[in-house]
Each structure stands twice: as C-alpha cells, then as structure tokens.
C-alpha cells in the first residue's frame, strides 16, 4: 500500500463503508440498502452463470468500481457529517450575530419614538433596517433548520447559503440609497458631510457584523480541523 | 468506453420502458449497447439520486422476496428533458458521423 493513498476495499462491507462512511445517517440509510440489494443480485447472477461463490463476489465487487469515486459522487449529492458540523457552526454564529444586530436596530428604532425630535433620519429608514435584518435572521434560521433535519441534499443547503449571502449583500447595498432618500427632503438642515457620516456608520455597522460572523466561523473551523479524527490519523 | 455525461440520458431512456430498479437499469444499458458502454455500477446510484433530486425521476420502495427494492420511474419533467437531450445527441452524433465519413 502506498502511504497517503486510501486502502482499496477487499470485500463488499469495506467497499460500502468507504463509499458511504462520511455521509449523514439519513443518506446512509437511503444509499446502503440499495447498493446491498444491487450487490446481492450481481452475486446471484454470477453464481447462476456457474461461477464459484468467491469468484462471484469478486466479480460483483469489481463491477461496482472504485469505492472512493462513488463516495465523491455521493458527497456531491448528500451532506456529509463533516460538512453538517461546519455549516451548523457557521449557522449558529450567524444566527446569534443576526439576533444581536436585530436587537440593536430595534433599539435604534425605539430611540426614534422616545426622542422624536432628536433624529437625523426618517422612521422608514429604521424600519427598512429592521426589515433587512429580519430577512437575514430568517434565512439564517432556515439554514440551521435544513441542517438539523439532515434530510436536505447538498444542493438545497448550498442554494440556501448562496441565497443567504446574496440577501446579506443586497441588504448592505439597499442601505446605500436609503439614507440618501431620507436625506434629500431635509437637505436644508443637513450637510453632505453629515450624510456621508451616516452612510459610513450604516456600512460599518452591517459589514462589521458580517465580518465578525466570518471570523468566528473561521476560528472554529481551524479548531475543528485540528481535532478532526481523519486529519489526526493522517498526521 | 467512456461515456461521461451521457449516463443520465441513458438512465432516462431506460425508464421510458417502465419503472425499473438500479441493478436492472445497469444490466439493460450494458446489454443494449452490446457491452460497448461499460460503466462502474457504483456510480449509477449517485446519478439516479441526482436525477431524483432534479425531479426527473421518482422512486418508490417495494418488498420483493423479503428484500426492499427501490423502483425508479420517469416523471413528466424527465420525459421532456429526455426528448430535448435525445434531439441534441442525435444532432451532435450526426454531425460527428458526417465529418468522420467524409474523412474515410
């Protein structure tokens, strides 16, 4: 055996383990019985053609092909336990940060009502912020729920993630014209520098939140990689 | 012979004859291509599950001789996709055949 190369399965049990080991349990429950039935049928067919039991088993195993190639294809289709753990970590951090941001925005909106005269921006600006933050929080919760079910295929979770990232980007972009529109009616009372400061604050607020999520996730990911059994074994 | 990318079309074509299970689909593809199209059967199931995720086929389990079997069936969406893919393939293979015959 060449060092660093995965071990070639010697029998069907090893083949099946190599092909499905990393998949989430729900995917394993779907895939394994199907391949087991396929293998039994193939062995039966070879036996009927006059092969001995060991030859029939070897031929059926050969027909299945490379277990690791099959594993790669299955992993494109189904979530792995490893990816669920990492995506869950991200979703957990993201949800918490989104919730904190939501509270901050709600407090800012409340501040508008408490001090109605002491405000720079119209109410609908804050309501827009609440709306976007709420959407981001919901999408974050959807990802978590999809991961918890473990029934979702990889494509569904990736689509949810892509939608979530677009939503985050769009929420940042959408904030740009919002203060501008709020600023125009009260142009007489404000200067351009005031507007730019407000815009900058909004951007910093949103981007810092997202950066913190990313940073925390990366840190956890690094921690997990150090303790992952496969990587430790390889080391 | 390597027929990467065509396996899904061959699966869809096979299912036009009626619901079928994985092992039978693999054997029929090999049989009808007279052994020319040989593929590793372990890659059949990811392809089947991918087609199911795209809703081109549907599946249901049946008990057979004490064993659970999963039968795959072509959906209406799958039929439409197959018609399109068949046309594209015939067009493509016709063009290649024409070119090769010219050179012969």
Note the main attributes of this structure.
heterodimer; A: 235 residues; 10 helices; 80% helix; rod-shaped; B: 104 residues; alpha+beta; Arc Repressor Mutant, subunit A; 4 helices; 55% helix
> What gyration radius of chain B follows from the Cα positions, in whole Å?
15 Å
Uncertain residue segments of chain A? 227-235
Report how far the terminal alpha carbons of chain B are from each other: 22 Å
The proportion of residues in beta strands of chain B is 15-25%
Average pLDDT rating of chain A: 74
Strand content of chain A: under 5%
Helix content range of chain B: 40-55%
Succession of helices and strands of chain A: HHHHHHHHHH
**What is the number of helical segments of chain B per DSSP (H or I, 4+ residues)?**
4
> Mind describing the biggest β-sheet of chain A?
none
Binned, the helix content of chain A reads: over 70%
> Judging by the overall fold, what is the CATH architecture of chain B?
Orthogonal Bundle
How would you explain this protein's 3D organization?
Chain A is mainly alpha-helical and 235 residues long. Chain A folds into 2 domains: 12-77, no CATH class; 81-227, no CATH class. Chain A contains 10 helices and no strands. The longest helix of chain A is centred in the C-terminal third of the chain and has 36 residues, at 192-227. The radius of gyration of chain A is 27 Å and the shape is rod-shaped. Chain B has 104 residues and is an alpha+beta fold. Chain B has a single domain, classed as Winged helix-like DNA-binding domain superfamily/Winged helix DNA-binding domain (Arc Repressor Mutant, subunit A, Orthogonal Bundle). Chain B is built from 4 helices and 3 strands, in the order H-E-H-H-E-E-H. A 3-stranded antiparallel β-sheet of chain B has the order 1-3-2. The mean pLDDT of chain B is 86. The A-B interface holds A 15, 19, 30-31, 33-35, 37-38, 40-42, 45, 63-67, 69-70, 73-74, 76-78, 153, 155 and B 21-23, 26-27, 39-43, 45-47, 49-50, 53, 67-70.
């Amino acid at each position: 055996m060449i060092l660093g190369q995965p071990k070639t399965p010697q029998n069907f049990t090893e083949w099946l383990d190599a092909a499905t080991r990393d998949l989430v349990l729900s995917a394993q429950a779907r895939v394994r019985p199907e391949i087991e039935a396929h293998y039994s049928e193939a062995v039966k067919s070879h036996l009927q053609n006059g092969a001995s039991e060991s030859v029939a088993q070897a031929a059926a195993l050969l027909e299945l092909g490379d277990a690791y190639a099959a594993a790669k294809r299955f992993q494109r289709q189904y979530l792995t336990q490893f990816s669920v753990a990492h995506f869950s970590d991200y979703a957990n951090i993201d949800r918490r940060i989104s919730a904190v941001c939501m509270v901050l925005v709600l407090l800012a909106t409340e501040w508008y009502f408490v001090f109605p005269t002491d405000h720079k921006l119209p109410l609908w600006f804050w309501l827009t912020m609440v709306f976007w933050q709420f959407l981001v929080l919901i999408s974050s919760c959807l990802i978590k729920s999809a991961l918890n079910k473990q029934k979702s295929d990889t494509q569904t979770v990736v689509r949810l993630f892509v939608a979530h990232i677009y939503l985050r980007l769009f929420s940042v972009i959408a904030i740009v014209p919002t203060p501008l529109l709020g600023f125009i009616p009260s142009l007489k009372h404000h200067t351009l520098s005031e507007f730019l400061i407000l815009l900058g604050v909004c951007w910093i607020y949103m981007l810092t939140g997202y950066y913190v999520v990313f940073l925390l996730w990366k840190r956890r990911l690094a921690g997990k990689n150090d303790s992952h059994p496969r990587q430790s074994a390889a080391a | 012979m390597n027929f990467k990318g065509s396996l899904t079309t061959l699966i869809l074509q096979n299912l036009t004859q009626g619901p079928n299970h994985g092992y039978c689909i693999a054997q029929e593809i090999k049989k009808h291509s007279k052994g020319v199209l040989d593929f590793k059967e372990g890659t059949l199931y990811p392809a089947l599950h991918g087609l199911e995720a795209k809703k081109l086929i549907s599946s249901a389990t049946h008990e057979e001789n004490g064993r659970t079997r999963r039968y795959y069936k072509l959906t209406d969406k799958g039929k439409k996709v197959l018609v399109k893919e068949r046309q594209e393939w015939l067009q493509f293979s016709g063009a290649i055949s024409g070119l090769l015959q010219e050179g012969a």
